[in-house]
Amino acid sequence: MKKLTPVFVISVIITGIFILWGILPNSNLDKVTSNIQGFLSEKFGWFYMLSATLFLVFAIFLIFSKYGNIRLGKDEDRPSFSYITWFAMLFSAGMGIGLVFWGVAEPISHYYDPPFIKGETPEAARTAMRYSFFHWGLHPWAIYAVIGLALAYFQFRKEQPGVISSILRPIFGDKVNGPLGITVDVIAVFATVFGVATSLGLGAVQISGGLSYTFSGVENNFSTQLIIIAIVTVLFMLSAQTGINKGIKYLSNLNIILAVALLIFFLFIGPTNFILDLFTTTLGSYLQNLPSMSFRLSPFKQNMTWFQDWTIFYWAWWIAWAPFVGTFIARISKGRTIREFVIGVLFVPTLFGALWFSVFGGTGIYLDFFKQKGLMDVINSKGSEVALFTMFENFPFSSVLSIIAIFLISTFFITSADSATFVLGMQTTNGNLNPSNKIKFVWGLIQSGTAAILLWIGGLEALQRASIIAAFPFTIVMLLIVFSLIKSLKTDKLVAKK
């Protein structure tokens, strides 16, 4: 192993202390994180809302700006991956596990408990779908697009190291080579570890819930979840050793094939006309209400907890994931133009996510509204992780569908963890495009350990708290990235030439 960087050493120490803190007898980690999360959600919800909306506005501006034709690399560079492979890789890394986990559970939850209006009504159903589109649509992918674009631009066009601190050079100059740069990169690693741990925890919980729901002898408890994390850790560590052009690429393609197959099958076996009508209606409603939703909170405390538990959590989760997904997307996007990059990252996954929620969430609402109620009771009694499997029971081949879904979650789990070990390796080796297997091995163990600790101390709530806490300092870094990128684009030789 080559000489370890300060970022690697400091990051490992910090995450190691967190893991040790969590496993100590009578640990107060749960209480401390609860207090911090409560403070941030209550005092800085507006900050997350404004920041996420700013990133979306900036991304759309880039599409129509004079900077759109600038290539992420030299002028003669061209993309290494086809569009299909590129979309599959960025989508698998971006939010695969979350879509499967929340595809049914979130719309149903909003249908029974929407903000500002009465639940279990047609208007509640429309609101539920619109907010599901909102939480998984343009805003999160704009966050990914901004940081991914900045990393790719500075790494491949400006020939800077592929780390977050390098993006801030136009603002801070050579100070990014010292303590300031180390601090920024450590914050990025911290956000990545806890953002990914949240997703891995969700994956373990849903695999456990699916297995217990499908097979009577399996219990949905922490022991089962820990075994799942251990097994998947071995699998993604094996995949991580093969590099980005083999393991991650092949798994990403498999993920997208399975996801599309499940989506199409369910679209036609379910209430097809209702799903497509709902998709069309909700898409229009989402676009129409996007400006007001982007700024909507609850200053008079009406349903403020709803926004903290859903919208603020999601914006924090996406920002915590941003250094991981952004670094990964940058790595696979060399040679694309800024306009091509932003359009691809922003709109293709958003449309796919909208269709996913329409098929699975829409079917759940259809069953509850027209057939028989009960999905929300299952969620309240057994957890959100079993909502998908409960819905399968209303259709033929329910056991087969459940097994396919469990396998899909597992491959998403492996791909996300595999990609994250690669990204953490890059971030802690000064942007090395091919970090050593030993470095990736260390980060693989840390990720799994963090996910296990978070599940142990508080389940899904602990996972949510970790995301919100990790995202706060990195939101500030991302705002600086926007200004730094604008400053650098203004002096780009292609713009100057024109």
Descriptive notes:
The chain has 498 residues and is mainly alpha-helical. The protein has 18 helices and no strands. The longest helix has 53 residues, at 437-489. It is globular, with a radius of gyration of 22 Å. 53% of the residues are buried.
Radius of gyration over C-alpha positions, nearest whole angstrom? 22 Å
Sequence stretches where pLDDT stays below 50 over 5 or more residues: none
Q: What is the CA–CA distance across the termini?
A: 46 Å
Number of strands: 0
Element order: H for helix, E for strand: HHHHHHHHHHHHHHHHHH
Q: What percent strand? A: under 5%
What about the largest sheet?
Answer: none
| Number of distinct helices | 18
Give average pLDDT, whole number.
Answer: 87
- Find the structural class using helix and strand composition: mainly alpha
Helicity, as a percent range:
over 70%
